[in-house]
Amino acid sequence: MIPKGKLIIIGGHESKGDVPGENLDIQKKTSPTSHFEILGTLISKIPRTHHIIEIIAAASSIPREMEELYIHSYKQVGFTHVGIIQVENEADAQDSLLIKRVQNAHAVFFTGGDQNKLMSVIGQSPLLTAIKNKYTEDKHFIVGGTSAGAMAMSETIIGGGPIVEALFKSDIRISKGMNMIQGVIIDTHFIKRGRFARLAHAIALNPSCLGIGLGEDTALIISEGNHAECIGSGMVILIDGSKMGLTNIDVADDSTPIVVDNLTVSILAEGSSYLIQEKKFGLAAGK
Prior knowledge:
Elements: E1 6-10, H1 35-43, E2 52-57, H2 64-76, E3 81-86, H3 96-104, E4 107-110, H4 115-122, H5 126-137, E5 142-146, H6 148-151, E6 156-160, E7 173-176, E8 184-187, H7 196-205, E9 210-214, E10 218-223, E11 227-232, E12 235-240, E13 264-269, E14 272-275, E15 280-283
Parallel strand pairs: 1-5, 2-3, 2-4, 4-5, 8-9
Antiparallel strand pairs: 1-10, 6-7, 9-12, 10-11, 11-14, 12-13, 14-15
């Protein structure tokens, strides 16, 4: 079924907890676009007297100061009510009161953290089912996520994997995500943390999927589960494995480096778009 709502996947933004030496020094020529601004722009186009967003923290806990930042920032861009839903276990994901809050919301937003933790508490839960049902049926409903919250949106997700100089079969973990969108694998902090090889590895294992590597302060707004519009100050790298050539990925042992021929790469930036199912690139008028 084609979803009527909109999906927003955001590449994240570096926190003070980063490990020194693991990130590239990125020079920006344009001002970063926050996810608050992105969602605010979308909800401002929907005529109603109030807008409700529920922030879902299941990938990590939200410190009190971050709760205050979310509430203040989302109210600044037009949300009249900002709720925080802390999902710490499977019982929380079955709570009828929390499910009712999601059903009454106009947007939900998944925070960052650990995508495996997120899926361990929300996967196959009534809370997730309520979100997916509303996303499928309500054309004004928005589901957003940043960092791990964005990575977990797809049916197939990267559960983890180191950044190394050569690819080995055991270096990546693939698992099940929220299945908000099919046919893609999403990675975040993509440029800053040098994750091109990791996503290429995931696509070599799943060549029918499109790899989406989201730069920081950069997002894709996806309509009808297919039309992706790029916004933000960075770029999105797409890796298409549908025409993949020779590879040893099926026969290599854990000590043999993986080789892959003919992955197709596209680069999106603000003003460009992409049809996921058709694998077709586009530019906005005047670009």
